[in-house]
Amino acid sequence: MTAAPLSGRHILLVIAGGIAAYKALELIRRLKDGGARVRCVLTKAGAEFVTPLSVAALSGEKVHQELLSLTDESEMGHIRLARESDLIVVAPATADILARMAAGMANDLATAILLATDKPVLAAPAMNVEMWAKPVTQRNVAQLAADGIQFIGPSAGDLACGETGAGRMTEPADILARVEALLAAPVQSLAGKTALVTSGPTREAIDPVRYIGNYSSGKQGHAIAAALARRGAHVTLVTGPTAQPDPAGVTVRHVETGREMLEAVEHAMPVDIAVFAAAVADWRAAEPMAVKTKKSGETPRLALVENPDILATVAKAGPKRPALVIGFAAETESNAEALIGRAQQKRAAKNCDWVIANDVSPGTQVLGGARNTVHVVSANGAESWPTLDKREVAERLVERIAAALPARAPAA
Ligand code: C5P
Fold first, then answer.
1. Ligand 1 pocket member 172 (CB < 6 A)
2. pTM, rounded to two decimals
3. CATH topology for the 10-182 domain
4. Span 216-225, average pLDDT
């Protein structure tokens, strides 16, 4: 008989105050069935939704609730709770606890543990659709992701509040699968490897106050850089102007134009892995004006010249070529077959190993949005992935990179 996948592992489950807290009870049961020891921390609001008695009965452990408890601090202080687990899961992760985590607060037992821990943290957000969509929540999630917190969900559907949209906590079975993957993953599977990622848009000046740009948010490229770094790769991220925070443990070069991006990329070479997620302006003004152009009654004509193709330059770089070169093909093309066909052409034309093809038509809300639907196109054909959070696309892609790389020679 094979051992249970979580046998001997310690999970600390933080249950915050949301209606999805009832699903945390099932998560406890599933984690225990998987062989894990599960200790639970219930926030004050969490205890309004599930009782400490249910949590204790299901986990078979004392439930921890108070930061400054006379008995708990001597028996099991928050520092010990924070350290004596292999993984901390926050489920449900409400808007409130995410905000407190992002601000580095430690005003209750749960946040004190999350601040004190040196272990990986997986958060499963659950909240009302508007709360999830609020810029402040998205900022907090982006900051936490950059700080190394991992996320699963939320998914879209009917919410307990009667509204419909993104905000449902991921089902316990799927959280369990992610927990197993996180604990099973050879965490440092890319240790000793070097990687380069481009991300975000570029800005090409027309005059001192105007530029050619695009809607790229940098979310996908930044998430890939963070995921590569988490697996131990030495990562350089070359990014155009974005609102994304710099990912933890990554060397970040901020650039503005396509030509600056090429220069920073060449400076980071040679590398083993190169992922080109940036939306580089294909053209720039041939002669940017030194002063702001004024209306003169005539419609001005803007002469453009082509920008260097950074991906193609690196992918054709002879002996310096990275072992694995991955490009993106963003098209306003909703027919998957045509999209994949174009991606195959691009793969050949630019000499890259894989092309990640996605439809960025306005209705898809991929450009600037949180989710992405991609097709991974390689010499072996195309594999279509379901619509996923961009961070989950990054995780899967990096897992695939780690699996593909050992078969190849390291960079010179
Ligand atoms: O040709 P297209 O712009 O669709 O190619 C997209 C891919 O090429 C992306 O991976 C993008 O990052 C990369 N690219 C680049 N430099 C350019 C244009 C695109 O690296 N000037």
1. no
2. 0.69
3. Rossmann fold (3.40.50)
4. 95
